[in-house]
Structure formats: structure tokens, C-alpha cells
Design a protein that fits this description.
Order of helices and strands: EEEEEEEEEEE
Number of helices: 0
Helix content: under 10%
Radius of gyration: 14 Å
Number of strands: 11
Strand content: over 45%
Structural class: mainly beta
Oligomer: single chain
């Protein structure tokens, strides 16, 4: 089992920044990628970014490139999402997810089914 705990969400004004953290515990040796997804009210869950645990190669949804940066600290088993120039449309619950075992197709493009473990989510609200 892998446990994921997100933190860092909150209320921020448009144009501001937030950094989300996701700490993994348990059978972390089995993780090969960790990603961020988000879900706004009334909308489907949306891929934001993911990062290969070995080598730290990041992948982003096209609409997230430029403002969001994903990074990881292997020693702390933690993945981060730095969000800059936030907009009201970035308001959502942000979820951390871990892909483990043998790499599944679609993990780098954010296929939710490729991720076996999910955190509880952290709310990000951007006011205009």
C-alpha cells in the first residue's frame, strides 16, 4: 500500500502563487511516477502534470505548460506542484496520484487509470 497526503492548498488572489506538496509513505519503492490532477465543480478530473520518479522527467498537460512546475524530492518521497500566475479558472480540488509497479500505458499523458493510488485532495481557490 502507498499513502499520499497533499498539503499547501488555500485561498489566493488572481496572479498569486501556491506550492502544493504530496508526501508518499508505505511501499514507495514501487512508485515509478507521481502526478497531479485537478477537478473543478461540475467538471471531470483533469490531468495537470506528472513526473518520472527515476530521472525526474516531467510531463505536462498542454494547457498547464508555462505556469505550473512539477518537481520531486526522492529523499523525502515528496512531489511538488509550483503554481504561478494563478487564475480563477484554476480553482479546483487538486489530487496527487502515484503510479506503481510495471509502467502502464498513458501514465505520462495523464491517463487516470494508470495511477493506482490517490490522495484525498487539497482545495485551491483563486479569487478574482
Amino acid at each position: 500500500q502507498v499513502q499520499l497526503v497533499e498539503s499547501g492548498g488555500g485561498l489566493v488572489q488572481a496572479g498569486g502563487s501556491l506550492r502544493l506538496s504530496c508526501a508518499a509513505s508505505g511501499r514507495t519503492f514501487s512508485i515509478y511516477a507521481m502526478g497531479w490532477f485537478r477537478q473543478a465543480p461540475g467538471k471531470e478530473r483533469e490531468f495537470v502534470a506528472t513526473i518520472r520518479w527515476s530521472g525526474g522527467i516531467p510531463y505536462y498537460a498542454d494547457s498547464m505548460k508555462g505556469r505550473f512546475t512539477i518537481s520531486r524530492d526522492n529523499a523525502k518521497n515528496t512531489v511538488y506542484l509550483q503554481m504561478n500566475s494563478l487564475k480563477p479558472e484554476d480553482t479546483a480540488v487538486y489530487y496527487c496520484a502515484a503510479a506503481y509497479g510495471i509502467p502502464n500505458a498513458g501514465w505520462s499523458t495523464g491517463r487516470p487509470g494508470a495511477y493506482g493510488y490517490w490522495g484525498q485532495g487539497t482545495q485551491v481557490t483563486v479569487s478574482s
